[in-house]
């Protein structure tokens, strides 16, 4: 094994270790999140970490088999984030400035 191949393997192994640590920390954040939004963001970032892990595995194996899977995961992560953002935007919609009208004012 040549020096560049050794450096390549060491760097990919370090990337895998960092991805595993990030995944563990994200699982902790998802389970402890004080709000639903924190948990949703944690799940979105977890999808990105899964994509990074698949990219590292693909680089380690020198195989492009995982690229379509990474693309589908990215699409699902994006649509999930947009869906959660729309749900939270509707849920947290501010009340009108004038407030609710009384029966007497409607006439």
TrEMBL record:
<dbReference type="Pfam" id="PF04066">
    <property type="entry name" value="MrpF_PhaF"/>
</dbReference>
<feature type="transmembrane region" description="Helical">
    <location>
        <begin position="40"/>
        <end position="60"/>
    </location>
</feature>
<keyword id="KW-1133">Transmembrane helix</keyword>
<keyword id="KW-1003">Cell membrane</keyword>
<keyword id="KW-0812">Transmembrane</keyword>
<feature type="transmembrane region" description="Helical">
    <location>
        <begin position="6"/>
        <end position="28"/>
    </location>
</feature>
<keyword id="KW-0472">Membrane</keyword>
<protein>
    <submittedName>
        <fullName>Multiple resistance and pH regulation protein F</fullName>
    </submittedName>
</protein>
<comment type="similarity">
    <text>Belongs to the CPA3 antiporters (TC 2.A.63) subunit F family.</text>
</comment>
<dbReference type="InterPro" id="IPR007208">
    <property type="entry name" value="MrpF/PhaF-like"/>
</dbReference>
<dbReference type="GO" id="GO:0005886">
    <property type="term" value="C:plasma membrane"/>
</dbReference>
<feature type="transmembrane region" description="Helical">
    <location>
        <begin position="66"/>
        <end position="89"/>
    </location>
</feature>
<keyword id="KW-0813">Transport</keyword>
<dbReference type="GO" id="GO:0015385">
    <property type="term" value="F:sodium:proton antiporter activity"/>
</dbReference>
């Amino acid at each position: 094994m040549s020096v560049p191949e050794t450096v390549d393997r060491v760097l990919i192994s370090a990337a895998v270790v960092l991805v595993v640590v990030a995944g563990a920390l994200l699982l902790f954040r998802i389970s402890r999140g004080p709000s639903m939004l924190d948990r949703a963001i944690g799940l979105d970032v977890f999808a990105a970490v899964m994509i990074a892990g698949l990219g590292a595995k693909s680089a380690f194996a020198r195989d492009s088999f995982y690229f379509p899977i990474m693309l589908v995961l990215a699409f699902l992560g994006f649509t999930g984030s947009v869906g959660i953002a729309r749900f939270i935007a509707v849920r947290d919609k501010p009340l009108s400035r004038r407030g609710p009208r009384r029966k007497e004012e409607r006439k």
